[in-house]
Specification:
alpha/beta; ten-stranded mixed sheet; 10 strands; binds S-adenosylmethionine
């Protein structure tokens, strides 16, 4: 099977749609300034959050800067967003290779694509936005030192969503002790990545935000819960699950405390559970709305 990260981000959309904490979202809507809003999204992937905010009528008029370091993601965003917009009934104007306008009679979003490491982007001192978005991103960064730098990108609000918070559950159990060992080792890899990361990023954001001078306006769980309905996973969620197992495989293959054959069989059985529509995956995560 071919593993494509942009395809994984596409398959994640319906899982994130269900997971995003609605009371934090309501608080965001209540606190948004009058439009047009300036938004900077960091670690934006292929732009699915931008599409979601239009789909959910959270924004109608905005200047939106999408920052991601992966060339593959930004290239996909340049293609995928206009295709999505046309299907959603919006007109598309390409301004330059790195800018786009999507609009209809009521909506108008000016989009700017920035392929950059977020800290290089911050170094360029961009004008702070009304709203900073970081979705499924902060648990990958070194904390607390990244927080003040990230908050320099906003003059007011930060909506920080899908921050992993220490719980992974895969059911049904294959071997309780082995399941527990694999989950524990997997979480440990998040804490020891050279580029940063925290397997309990969600709960730690309360203090990281406070220390950086931001006030938490709303917080709540945004757990991923993926299961089959009548033996079939919704949308592209079987692919999403296979990619989650791919993360396990990439992180733990060759781990000195894991027998290679035992781990390979465990992965094989988990894939078979997806095939049979049996696998239930839960990841505990947290969303925040903060104000400077
Ligand atoms: C888990 S993905 C989430 C992407 C997107 N927010 C979504 O949920 O669809 C994390 C993203 O952060 C990007 N990323 C990781 N480190 C980065 C950095 N230092 N600067 C900019 N982007 C980064 C990756 O390329 C990836 O697209």
């Amino acid at each position: 099977m071919e593993y494509s990260f942009p395809h994984y981000l596409l398959s994640k959309q319906s899982v994130d749609d269900r997971a995003l904490n609605r009371s934090v979202l309501d608080s965001l809507k209540l606190n948004l300034p009058t439009e047009p809003i300036r938004i900077i999204e960091v670690g934006a992937g292929i732009g699915t959050m931008l599409a979601r905010l239009l789909r959910w009528d959270v924004m109608t008029k905005a200047d939106y800067v999408l920052v991601d370091e992966m060339t593959e993601n930004i290239e996909m965003a340049r293609e995928w967003i206009p295709n999505w917009a046309v299907e959603a009934g919006l007109a598309v104007e390409r301004i330059e290779s790195d800018q786009l306008r999507v609009f209809d009679q009521v909506r108008e979003v000016h989009i700017c694509f920035e392929r950059a490491d977020v800290f290089d982007f911050i170094q360029k001192n961009p004008a702070p936005a009304d709203l900073l978005i970081a979705h499924a991103f902060l648990d990958l960064l070194p904390m607390p030192e990244s927080m003040p730098k990230l908050l320099s990108l906003t003059k007011s609000l930060a909506w920080l969503t899908i921050n992993f918070d220490g719980v992974t559950s895969l059911e049904p159990s294959i071997d309780a002790a082995l399941d527990e060992q694999i989950e524990r080792l997997y979480h440990a890899t998040m804490d020891t990545r050279l580029t940063g990361g925290d397997s309990h990023a969600g709960r730690h954001l309360f203090s990281h935000l406070r220390t950086a001078g931001a006030q938490v306006l709303a917080a709540g769980a945004s757990d991923w819960v993926v299961h089959a309905v009548n033996g079939k996973y919704p949308a592209d969620e079987a692919y999403f699950l296979r990619f989650i197992l791919h993360f396990f495989e990439e992180s733990l293959t060759g781990h000195p405390r894991l027998d290679a054959d035992v781990f390979a069989n465990w992965l094989k059985e988990r894939h078979a559970q997806i095939e049979r529509g049996e696998l239930v995956y839960i990841a505990h995560q947290m969303d925040f709305l903060a104000r400077l």
